[in-house]
Design brief:
Blueprint lengths: L1 H5 L4 H18 L6 E3 L3 E2 L5 H10 L1 H16 L7 H21 L10 H28 L5 H33 L4 H4 L10 H21 L5 H4 L9 H21 L1
Helix pairs in contact: 2-3, 2-4, 3-4, 3-5, 3-7, 4-5, 5-6, 6-7, 6-9, 6-11, 7-9, 9-11
């Protein structure tokens, strides 16, 4: 959490935040004409940008991803669901570099099968974290069912970033590295990662997706939801309260990682 605050004192990190936000928004906006769920989400090849920027610029990408997504939302109409879009995209730009460092770090330009597995794990975890927050939030508001939106955002993120991010990093990473502009080059003493938090965050993230689908389908109701004895047609209460520990726990772990 500390580095997310202190980066605003570094002019270079502020510039990288602006670059991340501008890149994300500039690619998001033209594809607003290709909606998948009108007013909610669309085909988004721009989803590779937060992953690429995260592995280059660290925490600047988290803020840039959140701000860039908010700018993109301005062109589709703002609403209460956009606060969850801001939080979800903040995680989408935060998780890749933190997870990558926690599993060993190194150059994020996969060449061997083992390196590809590491990269795809990081992309899938970031995509799932973003989708969990967005799907939970809009189901809580009663807008879109969790299984529809969370699964759609997950695959939209995963396909775009899984295919494009490694290719873009293959080109950009060596050049940014040679210029000494990687996040690791700019911070004097990089903070040691609490690696033990990564398995917990991973379990909460993917467990949250499984729980959300089961709760919405009526196959499982967590004990902390049963005590209220409340049923809603949209399952907004059940999914909202049932997934709260997963979402808040995963968010806290990623912030502390």
């Amino acid at each position: 959490m500390r580095e997310l605050r202190e980066m605003w004192r570094d002019t270079r990190m502020v510039v990288f935040t602006a670059i991340s936000a501008a890149l994300y928004a500039s690619i998001l906006i033209p594809f607003k004409v290709m909606p998948i769920i009108p007013g909610v989400t669309e085909f988004r090849p721009a989803n590779a940008v937060p992953v690429v920027c995260s592995l280059l610029f660290g925490p600047a990408a988290a803020w840039g991803s959140a701000i860039g997504n908010l700018i993109g939302d301005l062109f589709g109409g703002l609403g209460p669901g956009d606060m969850f879009g801001f939080a979800g995209n903040f995680l989408y730009g935060l998780v890749p570099y933190r997870a990558w460092e926690a599993i060993g770090g190194g150059s994020p330009t996969p060449r061997t099968p083992r390196e590809w597995v590491r990269m795809l794990f990081v992309v899938a975890l970031a995509a799932a974290a973003c989708a969990l927050v967005v799907g939970w939030g809009l189901n809580l508001l009663g807008f879109v069912p969790f299984p529809v939106l969370a699964n759609l955002v997950l695959w939209n993120n995963l396909v775009a970033a899984g295919v494009l991010a490694p290719l873009v990093l293959r080109v950009l990473y060596p050049r940014v590295q040679s210029g000494g502009l990687l996040y690791g080059d700019l911070v004097r003493a990089p903070r040691a990662r609490r690696r033990w938090l990564l398995p917990i965050a991973t379990a909460l993230t993917f467990g949250g997706h499984a729980a959300g689908n089961l709760i919405y389908a009526g196959y499982w109701l967590p004990p902390w939801v049963r005590v209220f004895a409340i049923e809603t047609p949209s399952r907004s209460f059940e999914v909202g309260v049932g997934l709260a520990p997963f979402v808040l726990g995963a968010f806290a772990c990623f912030l502390a990682l």
